[in-house]
Inverse folding.
């Protein structure tokens, strides 16, 4: 790794700061007022609107768009945030093309949905910018709830609990709140420190105490929490990364995409980040796309995604796949790494063709090929760290919950990526937190 | 292509589209540009006595917008021409000389004093103008001085002033009517009694656009104060059409030639006016909103429409729809229509369902077998046309006549014979069959 070649092949400053700043500016710039009015005018104000049904948090979409039309932005933001307190972040990161906008009746009509995501951002931006308080706390209930995790699930739960009159303490393993909003989401989706501004807005309701750098399992146990609090909510996400399962994957130059993205998100000057000349990304989800596109935008010359199935099976939406392609990333399907070597800073990856067997499972083929790169990113999914989850039943590696987000342990609820049925979407995590808070409130009030 | 040439009271123009008396016809410069663009004629901005009136130096116009900022309605507090009479007369004379094939009409507004009419009318006619149009319509400003709508609202004055003008003029006289009356027939009859050769309508409608949401004063304002103005543009077309049709179908007034005005923006609007009895049309707001170029679509669209109907001239279209306009009491109460939804076109927005459910007759499903599905329930549908009106997809819901069998709603058989309110059993004043 100390060799001259390696240093040259992984280095910072492939692009100058101006170019990088441009590459990491807003992916979808906000709408101006006149753009928003024109976009809003396209909404038909549907009855029992299909877009609302398709929104995991059930935002009254025609309702908030109608309020944009009448310049009632405060009312519009309230309509959004009362169902989804992270309406601002969701407006930026939701794959709307598979959610609300996919369901929009305008698709049938003219193949062009109402720009729901952008309109949602238009309505919520001023509220977060000016920190306009829209929610009040109910009379104190005298109950205390512990929330573990300060990602979308935890924050959403905490906010709703605070609104309902309960006092909340959030424990978070990270040094900052926000979860993957702060450490994971692609930088060009949430510019200008939006994640922290949103966290501040959420906490400004009052009654929520945030304790960072405290981890369940090492600093705290679930038993302690259950003893000290009236209820517990777990929104701990997926703390560990899946392995490729081949030898030598700990080589220098082979990294977890998630770790690199976290560093990228925290870097104040992105032009100081070391970037490889040739990058291979292994995986087919949002993380794979994000690390590929961001590598490219940092100046990597050649970025390849290897995915072991076809385009239809990719976790990343069509839009995300296209984004990668328009950014010059080459996506190669039915290919998986089977061996990896490093010599003098150069990594040689042996890729084997895969195919589908009769049951639809992936099966190794016979053909192989070799790819020379300088860095390999593993982006084949995360998994739950099963540490400190005493008394909880897991299923397929995630926490089992019912439809009120209650776990199998009394007075413990869970939501977000860490539960069975978690959809690995910010918006679903927010919904879980909200549903759990309502269930907790009911339990605390009515036993 | 159908021939658009038009003859109105013997006045020829290459097409039936005239610019109405208003800012587009205020000066030779504008009228020249209009004729270059292809307009068939122009009614000059209303002339008055010297010294000319003055206008406010603040906002004269304001608009009702759609969300996309299309102008749907338009309001003004402008008065008649504010230039010296001589300037106008010189320009009218010049334009008529330069454009002999176009119609050029002088609009006038004079006080209720016969001597004044005697003095001004010959002087104006001397310009070579093809006709006079008497502006009895301006609803603001001029009416406070006993002119414009103040005359147009009193049939006796209309008749008197028309007589004075007819006595002094040798060219035809058109009386422009104000819509600011409860019934358009008495003013039309008065114009006819006074000897008018034609009527034109409508002028603008009294209106206040809105308030200023910051200051809570009238909007727009001149230094903090506002006054009602005249409303026009697309929003007024239905009001104008009714008034035109009333004159065209009423026995006492149907012999009057009509120039139709009010909200005409594209060729279909012109078809409405012509079919309901107008012999030509005049346009103001659409030109003020889009410029003179709209004449291209107006003329071409009308010509293509006539072709599609196998009509060779505009005259063949005039009045075509008048026999279909009647009083409510004569509508056939035995006729039954029901809404029918074309499932291939339906985009499942659900608007038909919710409006019928909330405000009409609960006659459209929202789900069938647990699926989102919108379908008319014939047992409940009264054929009111609300769903058709709100459906965002053109022609997706249509009203279809039920011509045989039984009406699922009433359980009564469909009968071919007609029957109306005049003989209906529920009508205490019914006539015997
Ligand atoms: C690279 C990447 C890109 C993504 N892009 C998108 C996107 O564009 N759109 C979208 O909708 N979704 C996206 N997702 C998914 C989305 O970010 C997650 O679904 C969402 O953040 C889940 O929220 P959460 O609250 O369950 O968990 P997280 O956001 O992971 O938050 C977990 C929280 O728990 C804390 N925590 C973890 N373990 C412990 C512990 N033991 N003790 C105490 N605290 C703990 C962490 O500090 C953190 O605060 C992306 C994910 C990744 C990885
Ligand atoms: C700004 C403005 C000024 C007008 N001035 C006159 C006028 O001087 N004389 C007149 O007879 N009508 C005048 N009108 C009325 C128009 O000629 C026309 O009757 C009315 O606007 C309806 O037609 P529209 O909907 O096509 O505009 C004016 C209208 C506007 C908008
Ligand atoms: S489906 Fe589309 S048109 Fe209908 S309410 Fe939703 S955004 Fe508006
Ligand atoms: S025509 Fe009227 S009653 Fe019939 S379905 Fe439509 S809205 Fe309902
Ligand atoms: S309003 Fe029209 S498009 Fe919408 S559901 Fe009804 S029939 Fe379908």
């Amino acid at each position: 790794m100390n060799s001259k070649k390696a240093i040259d092949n992984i280095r910072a400053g492939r692009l100058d700061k101006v170019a990088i700043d441009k590459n990491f500016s807003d992916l979808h710039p906000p709408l101006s007022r006149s753009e928003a009015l024109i976009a809003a005018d396209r909404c038909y104000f549907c009855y029992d609107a299909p877009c609302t049904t398709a929104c995991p948090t059930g935002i009254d979409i025609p309702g908030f768009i109608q309020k944009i039309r009448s310049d009632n932005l405060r009312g519009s933001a309230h309509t959004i945030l009362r169902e989804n307190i992270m309406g601002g972040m969701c407006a930026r990161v939701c794959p709307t093309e598979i959610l609300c906008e996919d369901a929009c009746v305008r698709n049938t009509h003219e193949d062009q949905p109402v720009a729901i995501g952008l309109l949602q951002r238009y309505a919520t931006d001023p509220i977060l910018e000016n920190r306009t308080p829209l929610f009040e706390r109910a009379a104190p209930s005298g109950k205390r709830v512990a929330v573990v995790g300060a990602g979308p699930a935890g924050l959403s739960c905490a906010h709703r609990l605070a609104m309902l009159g309960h006092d909340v303490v959030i424990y978070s393993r990270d040094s900052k709140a926000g979860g993957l909003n702060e450490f994971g989401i692609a930088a060009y989706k949430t510019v200008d420190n939006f994640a922290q501004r949103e966290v501040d807005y959420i906490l400004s309701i009052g009654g929520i105490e945030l304790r960072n750098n405290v981890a369940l399992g090492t600093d705290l146990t679930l038993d302690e929490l259950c003893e000290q609090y009236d209820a517990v909510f777990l929104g701990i996400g997926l703390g560990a990364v899946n392995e490729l399962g081949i030898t030598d994957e700990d080589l220098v130059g082979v990294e977890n995409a998630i770790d690199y993205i976290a560093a990228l998100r925290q870097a104040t000057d992105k032009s100081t980040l070391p970037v490889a000349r040739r990058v291979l990304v292994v995986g087919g989800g949002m993380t794979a796309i994000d690390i590929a596109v961001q590598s490219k935008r940092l100046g990597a010359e050649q970025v390849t995604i290897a995915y072991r199935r076809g385009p239809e099976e990719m976790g990343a939406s069509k839009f995300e796949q296209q984004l990668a392609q328009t950014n010059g990333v080459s996506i190669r399907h039915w290919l998986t790494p089977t061996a990896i070597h490093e010599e003098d800073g150069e990594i040689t990856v042996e890729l084997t063709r895969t195919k589908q067997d009769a049951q639809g499972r992936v099966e190794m083929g016979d053909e192989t090929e070799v790819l020379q790169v300088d860095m390999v990113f593993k982006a084949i999914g995360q998994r739950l760290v099963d540490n400190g989850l005493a008394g909880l039943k897991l299923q397929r590696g995630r926490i089992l919950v019912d439809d009120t987000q209650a776990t199998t342990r009394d007075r413990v609820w869970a939501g977000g990526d860490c539960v069975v049925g978690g959809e690995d979407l910010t918006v679903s995590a927010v919904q879980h937190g909200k549903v759990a808070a309502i269930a907790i409130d009911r339990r605390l009030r009515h036993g | 292509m159908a021939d658009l040439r038009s003859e109105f009271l013997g006045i020829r123009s290459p097409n039936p589209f005239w610019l109405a008396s208003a800012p587009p016809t205020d000066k030779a410069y504008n009228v020249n540009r209009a004729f270059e663009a292809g307009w068939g004629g122009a009614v000059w901005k209303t002339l008055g006595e010297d010294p000319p009136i003055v206008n406010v130096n603040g906002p004269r116009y304001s608009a009702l917008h759609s969300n996309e900022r299309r102008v749907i309605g338009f309001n003004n507090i402008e008065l008649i021409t504010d230039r010296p009479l001589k300037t106008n007369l010189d320009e009218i004379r010049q334009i008529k000389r330069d454009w002999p094939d176009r119609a050029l009409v002088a609009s006038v507004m004079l006080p209720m004093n016969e001597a004044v009419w005697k003095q001004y009318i010959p002087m104006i006619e001397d310009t070579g103008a093809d006709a006079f149009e008497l502006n009895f319509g301006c609803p603001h400003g001029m009416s406070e001085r006993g002119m414009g709508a103040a005359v147009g609202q009193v049939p006796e004055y209309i008749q008197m002033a028309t007589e004075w003008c007819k006595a002094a003029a040798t060219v035809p006289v058109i009386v422009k009517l104000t819509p600011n009356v409860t019934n358009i027939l008495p003013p039309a009859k008065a114009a006819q009694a006074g000897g008018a050769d034609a009527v034109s309508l409508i002028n603008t409608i009294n209106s206040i656009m809105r308030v200023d949401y910051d200051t809570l004063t009238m909007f727009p304002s001149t230094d903090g104060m506002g006054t009602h103005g005249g409303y026009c543009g697309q929003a007024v077309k239905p009001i104008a059409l009714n008034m035109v049709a009333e004159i065209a179908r009423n026995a006492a007034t149907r012999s009057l030639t009509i120039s139709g005005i009010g909200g005409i923006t594209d060729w279909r609007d012109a078809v409405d006016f012509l079919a309901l009895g107008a012999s030509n049309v005049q346009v103001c707001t659409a030109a003020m909103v889009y410029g003179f170029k709209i004449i291209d679509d107006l003329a071409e669209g009308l010509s293509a429409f006539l072709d599609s109907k196998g009509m060779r001239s505009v005259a063949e279209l005039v009045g075509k729809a008048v026999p279909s306009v009647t009083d409510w009491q004569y509508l056939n109460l035995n006729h039954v229509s029901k809404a029918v939804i074309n499932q291939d076109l339906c985009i499942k927005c659900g608007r038909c369902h919710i409006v019928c459910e909330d405000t009409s007759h609960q006659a459209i499903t929202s789900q069938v077998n647990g699926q989102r599905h919108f379908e008319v329930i014939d047992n409940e549908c009264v054929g009111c046309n609300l769903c058709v009106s709100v459906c965002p997809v053109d022609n997706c819901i249509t009203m279809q006549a039920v011509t045989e069998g039984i009406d699922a709603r009433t359980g009564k058989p469909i009968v071919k014979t007609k029957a109306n309110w005049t003989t209906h059993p529920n009508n205490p004043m019914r006539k015997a069959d």
Chain B has two domains: 6-324, 328-423. The two ends of chain B are 49 Å apart (CA to CA).
